[in-house]
Design a protein that fits this description.
The chain is of the alpha+beta class. The chain is built from 17 helices and 10 strands. The chain is elongated, with a radius of gyration of 23 Å. Pfam families: RabGAP-TBC, TLD.
Length: 418
Amino acid sequence: MASLVASKEKMFITQTKLLNEVTWKTVMQIAKKHAKSAAQHLLRLSGAIGPERIYADWQWWILAALPFPHLVRVLDCFFHEGLKVFYRVALAILILFHKHSTNQNSEWYAEATKNGVDHAIDKFCRNMPASPTKLLRTAFSIRALSSQYISRVFIKTEMTLKSKQVITGNRLVRSRSSDNLPTSQSQVNIQMMSHTLTIREKMSEETCKQMGSHSPGPRALSMGVYPIQAIKSQILDHSELFTLWSWLPVRITMYQPVLLYTTEEHGCSLTTFYVRVEHHEPTLLMIKTCNNEVFGAYCSTRWFERNQKDERGNRQAYFGTGETFLFSLYPERAKYPWVGCSAGDGKEDQRVAHGSELFMAADSKMITIGGGDGQAIWMDENIRYGKTDRCSTFNNPPLCPSGDFEIRVLEVYGFAGA
């Protein structure tokens, strides 16, 4: 409990119906890759009801069905490591269910064929044949299932679901997880506004692509723009702020922006930058050069991640997620999202090369955003000089004509409560 209370990271279960559906579709997608045999077995047993109705109750496998000794151990890990633990445990349940129901003479195969797979998995969890230690060992022995990968699948699923569900008018699949979620009028309004703005942005992007431009037109102004009234930027005027705000993820526009760091007030030092910025997530970087070019990046992950180590104990070179994007506001207005956003549904791993997933990198000497065949934004340790080039991550042109730039002002914003 002390770990949960003291943590500055987000460790909570989603509380809107839309994001609840995103979570179970994320479980379904990662199961197809990291628990392939179990997912295929589940598909065969599901019959006419389809797998969707089964995965929709995935949180209840853990929170309602597992015996108390199992649940205590799972929550202990959850408090320490976050939501990825639930995803791992859900896959472990599928793997164990597959193991105990493969034989057609088994109790669980008979239960699944008689009463349906959804009831069988629920009963299996309530009578879990594996010990708490065996359950967790199975969960944490799943290889290559990183938080970064889960985050990428989650974001991609969310973006796809927001656009497709609204365009087709399909209703969200209901589960016990969503039955009791808040349905106040204010929440409905926010959710509808979120959907509407996403569709408008998507249509604007498609229109601009037809016209040969990378930049989507500004979304219709909404209650989500009010927080920017308090911004006193030395780089952007309100017209440019409105444009930039319309490109942010909708949920972020509901939070109050806070100026974390500016060279005008805090000096030109990467050390100071890290002290003031590194624990905030997300952050918005805005650069004005000595030639008056204005560009920057929305960075989805805290800069402290530069200190994290991989499974081999080495510091990871790049971090971040596909929600990161670049932008240019002068002399050209354009948004450059991650190239993986245009990959086919659920196929990002096959269609997006490793060189296109280099979102953010940093150390004591520099900061980099975007990589692969070049760096979209690079700044030195004195936050004075930088360079920009085309990169594979965002498929952007150089953000200023010369490629090299001298920084006049750098501003970094966080979002209170995000």
